[in-house]
């Protein structure tokens, strides 16, 4: 699996439905359209939408975004779509058998999204021997993968499978030889705590972590952060390098938001020449986060997109995008 910063052919996204989002649908659609337009400034975007929503999606996203009729339930194409890998025969897509994050949400249509995308692009499909989501892995492109145990070693996805069983499958599917496991949190959010909300590789050997505020509540999220930071500070990657950890402080001055609000800045997206980066309305934290990411990704233009409604749904920009790598 190539790392996210390598060249892309395009970005896939998915149009949210009223079935899932209810009265918040119009607000979330505004966020998704804004992200799509931002990405389209750097590379092509293909938006999946149910037939009944194609026209509305096209109007909202504009002519720069291609909208195609593929049935979806939710917008989280990082999880429902294929994860692309490169090999001797070219490109293929790994279908991780999406099951609604362990049966927590309807997924009759979304469970077929990976297969539908691969058929649309005429890309060979690799059916994984495990169940998971694209947001539950993070790779450096040089043989190292990070993951939370909570979203993989879990009876709601992989009953009867040990961590070793899952690790061997991940190594085979994504071409890595080192898996770094952190504990994560089970049962407190719909994903069982994906790694892409906690820690990302900004480059091989460098991990940027979503960092809770000092003096904040010592809740399950703070404990998971501390455990993960401890693991990452002690381990080495597939090349034997000790990891440099960069703190990316979370937004805290958020006003009246729900308990599930994802204020993590690490859930950003790299596209061709750009970084699509969230803003949450915490002006100081928004500015500080963007400055840190500019330093981590020199030569890329950082474009901030307000995603308050999306974050209320417990996800972010990375969760809502999936790259199709360019075969070079």
Automatic annotation (TrEMBL):
Look up and give the organism this protein is from: Nonomuraea soli
Q: Which domain of life is it from?
A: Bacteria
Q: Does the keyword Hydrolase apply?
A: yes
The name on file for this protein is Agmatine deiminase
Return one GO MF term: agmatine deiminase activity
User: What EC number(s) does the entry state?
Assistant: 3.5.3.12
Recorded hits in SUPFAM superfamilies, A to Z, give: Pentein (SSF55909)
Matching InterPro entries, A to Z?
A: Peptidyl-Arg-deiminase_porph
What Gene3D superfamilies does the record tag this protein with?
L-arginine/glycine Amidinotransferase, Chain A
GO BP, sorted A to Z? putrescine biosynthetic process
Any Pfam family matching the protein: PAD_porph
Keywords, A to Z, come to: Hydrolase
Q: Is Disulfide bond given among the entry's keywords?
A: no
